Amino acid sequence: MTSSPVPYEIRTAVPDDLPRLIDLIADHADFERQKVNRAHLAENLPRYLFGADARLSVMVAGRGGELVGYGAASIEFSTWKAACFLHLDCLYLAPQSRGAGLGARMLVAFENLARQQNLGWMEWQTPDWNIDAARFYERNGARALPKLRFAKTLSHIPSR
To answer: Which candidate, 17, 110, 127, 154, has a CA 20 to 30 Å from the CA of 10?
Structure first.
């Protein structure tokens, strides 16, 4: 008799997840050709996840006690629509966990979070070169918006 594989679990992040979560965030940044400072994340991320200033919702995906992915979102405001929406800042799965439907399940988990908050829509972005992600999002009912995203550094946040 063969045993079935351990199913993936999606849940809200807890403080004990931080070391592995930071590893996943760094892996995600590397994948998107960016860098993060792990020490800065370790020092500051808990405040925005669990502290009095909490404004970030993070869900993690795991299997057999090992975290293999995460998603991070916050509530933002649209002036044009005079309404709040869920901004999905990150959605990342370790390469070995892709292709099994886990990404779609994570999107649904964030859709449910948005509905619980009475938010009418979600928005997110992916690098224009990440064609696989764009196809994944389109297969899951999203449409690309024709916009450019800009950033201007106002203070120094340390890199690696």
So the answer is: 127
